[in-house]
Each structure stands twice: as structure tokens, then as C-alpha cells.
Design brief:
Elements lengths: L1 E3 L9 E6 L10 H15 L4 E6 L4 H13 L2 E7 L11 H8 L3 E5 L1 H4 L5 H11 L3 E2 L7 H7 L12 E6 L3 H9 L5 E6 L6 H8 L5 E3 L13 H14 L8 H13 L8 E6 L5 H11 L8
Parallel strand pairs: 2-10, 3-4, 3-6, 4-5, 7-8, 7-10, 8-9
Antiparallel strand pairs: 1-2
């Protein structure tokens, strides 16, 4: 569902937002797209267990846990940070995943960096038996295939398609399905320019660019300006934004419009990739620091 944004914009520019966050109440936005073909592949391989990776407030962990419950898979989450093992009840994401039946394996941050190494995977198979592995963030060829379905025929009217970037799978699918006259702009939630190579592994077209100025200090980092923007946007549009991904992307697009980045009369589509479950965890952190909370 595309929703028009009645924001005061200069130069005849128009904005709409594709509400991928409304696809499913618990398997949100791009996670729904990324898991669709991965789960079909797991079933075709007669696998009964899905194993994946994520951090303390991972949208991906929450989505995999619920998808497993919904479709009859056992799920295992390899969680970054062994200090979280006795804090599940304090963490809304992990508590939700546990209630969905996910089994956790908490590992140190040092060990977690080894998650793609063959020996690390072999050790997991020795411990848990056979499983279907979904990478951290869900990005692989099946995820990209699912994300190629985000854009529809009605989206052909847009000149620009903008989305947040985490592991690169969502934007790769969008790039592959974008039309020649469209430019895809990605707004990384992480510091650095390393994602270009990852995207090139999956994306076939060249009509895209990464805008790296709106990560607000890096993954999971926020400040008062971003929080105030998210709250103001919600009050004006009734559209909630998460602070890790979509909030930063929308902030960036509005800022670029004000800086005359886009030509006159540009039609811009924003992809809302979901992730709203992470607001509760972020608000817990903000409350502990006596900071402004995100409206929900």
C-alpha cells in the first residue's frame, strides 16, 4: 500500500511511502520479503530447523522466530553478546522470539565475527544437527528474489525509489526490479562504504547510489535531532518510523529535498521496511539515559 505524504515540499516535489510495515503484524516489511523464498527453499530441502544470527534487538531474529512458529519450523538464534544470556526478560525482542519458540545460543562478540567461517558452521551442525542457514539480516539470493517483488506496476510513475540499507539485500532486489528511468537511493544504517561490493554481488542494474551521510554515528546510534524528527513526522502523517533504518532514510530524503538535491517535480517513493518492533527496545535504552522517547 502506497500512502501519500502531505508534507510541505518545495519545487513541486511529491512523496509517497510504500507501507511494507503493514504486510504482516509480526514478520515486518522487508523481513517478510526476505524470508518468503528462504522458507520455501528450506521446505524443499526437507529441513525442519532454521538457524540464523542477530543482535539484541534484531528485527530479523524476531521475524524468523515468528515465521518458524507460523510455518512449523524449529528456530535457533545465534545471538551476539554472551552477556545477554541472563537478560532475556529485560529485552522485548529476545523475549518475543523466545515466546515464539526460538532456541538461543549466546556467543561472544569475538566469536560472532566468525559466523561465516566454515569451521564455525561445522561446529554449529555438530551441536544442533541439520539445519537451514539464513544469514544475518537474511540476505542471500532467495532474499533478493523476494525483495524484487516490492516494486509493482503502479510504482512506475516514480523517478526515485529510496530505502534504508542494512545488509544490502533489500536494495539489491529493488535495484533489479527498478525501471530504466528510475534511480534507486540507498541510505545505509551503518558507517562506511563497504556495502557497495555486497550490493554488486546481487544487483544487475547500475541505476543506484548510496547516500552515506545519514547514519547518525553508526548502526543503532540515534540523537535528539533524529528522535524529534521521527516524532514530528508521526504527528504530521500518522506514520511510525523506526530509529535504526527507515527513520534515518526519511530524515535523509527530507534533508536532501531541502538542499535541492532532487530536480523540480520529482516523484519520490520511500520504502518503509518495517522494524517497528525495535522501538520498544530503543525506548528502554533512551529512558535509562533520560532522553526523549519515540512516540508509538
Amino acid at each position: 500500500m502506497n500512502q501519500k505524504i502531505t508534507y510541505k515540499l518545495p519545487n513541486g516535489i511529491s512523496l509517497e511511502i510504500k507501507r511494507e510495515d503493514l504486510l504482516h503484524p509480526f514478520i515486518s516489511g522487508n523481513k517478510f520479503r526476505k524470508l518468503k523464498y528462504n522458507l520455501l527453499q528450506a521446505k524443499s530441502e526437507n529441513q525442519e530447523t532454521i538457524l540464523t544470527f542477530g543482535g539484541a534487538y534484531s528485527n530479523h531474529i524476531a521475524a524468523v522466530a515468528y515465521a518458524g512458529k507460523e510455518q512449523g519450523f524449529k528456530t535457533i538464534g545465534i545471538i551476539r553478546g554472551d552477556e545477554l544470556a541472563d537478560k532475556i526478560s529485560e529485552n522485548p525482542t529476545l523475549l518475543f522470539a523466545q515466546e515464539c519458540g526460538m532456541q538461543f545460543e549466546f556467543v561472544t562478540r569475538e566469536d560472532y565475527r566468525m559466523k561465516t567461517e566454515p569451521d564455525f558452521i561445522v561446529n554449529l551442525k555438530d551441536k544442533f544437527g541439520s539445519f537451514y542457514l539464513v544469514p544475518e539480516g537474511g540476505t542471500n539470493e532467495y532474499a533478493v528474489k523476494g525483495c524484487e517483488e516490492i516494486l509493482t506496476k503502479e510504482d512506475s510513475k516514480f523517478d526515485y525509489v529510496c530505502c534504508a540499507v542494512g545488509t544490502g539485500g533489500t536494495i539489491s532486489g529493488i535495484i533489479n526490479s527498478a525501471l530504466p528511468h528510475q534511480k534507486v537511493l540507498g541510505f545505509p544504517a551503518l558507517k562506511g562504504d563497504f556495502l557497495k561490493d555486497e550490493i554488486r554481488n546481487f544487483a544487475t542494474n547500475k541505476n543506484w547510489e548510496l547516500i552515506t551521510d545519514y547514519h547518525f554515528g553508526g548502526y543503532g546510534k540515534v540523537n535528539e535531532e533524529l528522535i524529534q524528527f521521527i516524532n514530528q513526522f508521526y504527528r504530521q502523517t500518522k506514520i511510525p518510523l523506526d530509529p535504526i533504518y527507515t527513520g534515518k532514510m526519511v530524515f535523509g530524503v527530507i534533508d536532501l529535498i531541502q538542499k535541492n538535491y532532487f530536480p523540480e517535480n520529482s516523484k519520490i517513493l520511500l520504502i518503509h521496511t518495517g522494524g517497528l518492533q525495535g522501538i520498544q527496545g530503543m525506548n528502554t535504552l533512551l529512558k535509562n539515559k533520560n532522553k526523549t522517547l519515540i512516540d508509538v
